[in-house]
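Margin note: ligand = zinc ion.
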Amino acid sequence: MIRHKRLKHRFVEHIPECLEPGVLYVSMEYATSAHSCCCGCGEEVVTPFTPTDWKMTYDGETISLHPSIGNWMLKCRSHYVIRQGMVIEAGPWSQEQVEAECRRDRAAKRRFYRSSVQEQKKVELSPDKTSKTGFWVNIRNWLNRCW
Ligand SMILES: [Zn+2]
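Resulting structure:
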């Protein structure tokens, strides 16, 4: 069930702690967006923009996100598409689809971040660059989220 059928977008620098339902917060600064789950469960859904995650389209009035948002890690397991500010319910995920998506996601990230992971080892070896660690921990969390 989708309670919020429309999302207003709000461009922000930082994603706020408390997300207003029905609002899609977009931070170009951090290349990410977040919203309160459209089923109304109140869970925070974060959709980062990367070459292997989501892509945002802004037509000057409304925002679309691609691909669909599958909250199979949340209790509600909601699945919807955000197209021109409208929330369109998509079919529920089967266990096989979830596993297939995990495999696709892992493979895509492995391909994309392979060169970056080698960078990371260099960063870890040089103690004066510790500020980068948080960033890499985040990427590692993304890599590991399906395990
Ligand atoms: Zn939900």
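The helical segments are 95-125, 133-144.
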